[in-house]
Known about the structure:
- The chain is an alpha/beta fold.
- It folds into 2 domains: about 10-385, 3-Layer(aba) Sandwich (Peroxisomal Thiolase, Chain A, domain 1); about 395-565, Thiolase/Chalcone synthase (Peroxisomal Thiolase, Chain A, domain 1, 3-Layer(aba) Sandwich).
- The protein has 16 helices and 20 strands.
- The radius of gyration is 22 Å and the shape is globular.
- The two termini are about 20 Å apart.
Amino acid sequence: MAEGDLRKVYVASSSMISPLGTTVEENMRAIEHYKSAISLIDDRSVFCMPLYAAKISEDLSYGDNLSILEGRAVLSVQRALEALGKEPDEEFWDDVQLIFSSTKGDIGFLDPLKADFDERVFLYHTAKVVADFFKIKREPLVISNACISGVNAVITGSRLIRSGFCNNAIILGADLLSRFVVTGFYSFHSISTVPCIPYDAGRDGLTLGEAVGTIILTVDRGFVSDEDAVLVEGGAVSNDANHLSAPSRSGDGLAIAIDAAMVEAGVSPGDIDFINAHGTATIYNDEMESKAIHISGLSKVPVQSLKPYWGHTLGASGVIESIGCFWQMKHGILFGTKGYEKAGVPMEINVTAGHRRISLKRCLKSASGFGGCNAAVIYSFDSVSKSVNSIRSSSWKEISRFKLSGDAGFHDIIREWNRNLDNKDVKFFKMDDLSKLGYIGALALIRNFPEIDNFPPEKRALFFANSSSSLASDIKHMAAIGRENDLLASPAIFVYTLPNTVLGEISIKNRFKGENTFFVYDPKRKFDMESQLLRDASLSGMDLVIAGWCELLGEHFDLNIALYTKDL
């Protein structure tokens, strides 16, 4: 394929399993009738007291020897494959990339009192189970980037197709309503005492849920049965570089992602028909989104949040909410934000509680999450697409590399490096060990590269990977709550139970406001992952990237990262 050739990325099919139903149609018809999956749940395996949440209750047959999460994932992918416009052939299976989006996966199998880990706690294992079930030849990719994981996965898949790396991508998003997650969010006092009410003056927090969704992307129009296909026109990821657990108060970080997505899609604010926003109903998230929408010139565009229907489904949210966008576009109905009555955000945005019949040709889907990460993707009908997003791949020049590894003495070694680098940031001592490791490595690289000031913050990127995600901090969180002490969870620990928080720490210290993605790989792929990270970075439009391996678990630590600039 020639450089600059335009390859359209079609949404070929989708599927969804949520507390509202086991098919896309069941889910959408339920929302059309204002039904919500959120209810008061009294389940001591989830939390020590009743709380509002959305939990799947239907007992589906998922298959032998599969966990509930694995079974739901397999079933979701199977149904999306069945919904394709034609049966997948050998060429499809030879050229399909599975991308799994999740925050905590099967974290319920983690027992901090056992010396050996159940393999199901590793995110790459879940992805491998699904890939093996369908005999997918390529190794799956796993993205664990907090609550933007699903949107990030769609953007990554569309870029791989657009660049010619593959012709098809299966985007799978899945997370469970678990005690691990509920206790963590409760420690932040961020769980609502009523079903969540995004953007409303009476909102007091988020409502958690669980779901699994699948979107199949393709370059082959024959797999699409719709007369007017939905396209992925463009997308971008950014970082606030401001705070780990609270969004930027200005909204500038999300605005960077929105503006970059519109540039890639070749559209202006007037071309956007509606915004499916993150809309968690926490005080600061909704305030930030209202400001970002204004910064990007979208204040008149209708805005919705679907979380009052499903709750916040974490790594699945960007996938199932995107599916909701496709359905609304195809049926000409804009869903209202259930429960909304009175505006409660500082900047006026166009939110209503009731559904509206309206022509919808193009949608902006956004998301934000812990670690300061943001993502935005634009979907449109093929008939109106202005897509100009041809290949933007580039090569990289390695400037310097930093390695640090061992199986003992980590705390002494990392403190010594901190002294050697004369780091005066006292927050360093509050970080989890994974963040300390990546932070010190990035600081060492940047201290030796004074030219970094020549690179705008929004053009600086971070692409990291490991095999254990944030398991070291996960163990500490589980140890804190034990078997029954749900109220002893520490927000200072929980915020680090996402691997991308190391990217957030680096971004805050060094003003990295561009793309940032954390991948989780099978450890056997450690030695070929950097070329893949650089491939993804090359498609992001960034000018500078720090990329590589950042692993810490138990006494073992292994850092191998390098700073690259675009090779002009």
